[in-house]
UniProtKB/TrEMBL annotation:
PANTHER family: INNER MEMBRANE-SPANNING PROTEIN YCIB, INTRACELLULAR SEPTATION PROTEIN A-RELATED. It is found in: Cell inner membrane. Keywords: Cell inner membrane, Cell membrane, Membrane, Transmembrane, Transmembrane helix. The keyword Cell inner membrane applies. It comes from the Bacteria. Plays a role in cell envelope biogenesis, maintenance of cell envelope integrity and membrane homeostasis. InterPro entries: YciB (IPR006008). It is a multi-pass membrane protein. Belongs to the YciB family. This is Inner membrane-spanning protein YciB.
């Protein structure tokens, strides 16, 4: 039996690690200047932020297990990737491992969606989104294909940004730019959602 989870905990689990990463990245050097901790002297802000992200991600997974007795597949997959690439980043003191993470995650999403669509003829976006959108199978096929192309484009874009721009630019792009692009993409799909919408039984 699942325990009653506070309403604020869902968003905190989802966005808390990102907020912690951002806060540590921009505040770590100033904190160290004011309170130099010998064990952390010489640590890069990016490495410290990645470690903070890993810790808060693990805490979020723990809370999900405590309250829900299970972890949804997508957050679990994301947490595993964070631990793998975050761990490599911290262990080797090399930011490139974590910067490649979005590329690999987006590429996997694209392969799963497009592979499911063309090999198994299954629109795998439907099980994730059908609670929000009620559409015909044709609509789900179109939306799945477009999401697959979107993830490919985002994987390519992440590679371009982290390889050609400054570290701080990539951090801001990762936290804010990718979120804006996702929202813009979803809004751009509303003509498809409206066109293939199925009326609810009570409509």
């Amino acid at each position: 039996m699942s325990r009653q989870k506070p309403g604020w905990m869902g968003p905190a689990i989802e966005y808390g690690p990102i907020a912690v990463f951002f806060a540590i990245y921009y505040g770590f050097d100033r904190f160290m200047d004011a309170y130099p901790i010998e064990a952390l002297v010489g640590t890069k802000a990016f490495i410290a932020a990645t470690a903070g992200l890993m810790v808060t991600t693990a805490i979020g997974i723990g809370f999900s297990l405590y309250y829900d007795k299970k972890i949804p597949k997508v957050p679990l997959f994301t947490a595993i990737i964070v631990m793998i690439f975050g761990g490599l980043t911290v262990y080797f003191d090399d930011e490139s491992f974590y910067k490649m993470k979005p590329t690999i995650v987006q590429a996997i999403f694209a392969i799963v969606l497009l592979g499911g669509l063309f090999i198994f003829k299954r629109p795998l976006i439907k099980p994730l989104m059908q609670k929000s959108w009620n559409m015909t199978d044709e609509g789900w096929h179109i939306l799945t294909f477009r999401f697959g192309l979107y993830f490919i484009a985002m994987a390519v874009l992440n590679e371009i940004v982290w390889r050609t721009q400054s570290e701080s630019f990539w951090v801001n792009f990762k936290i804010f730019g990718s979120m804006v692009l996702m929202v813009a993409f979803i809004f751009s799909q509303y003509p498809v959602i409206r066109r293939y919408h199925l009326p609810d039984p009570d409509e």
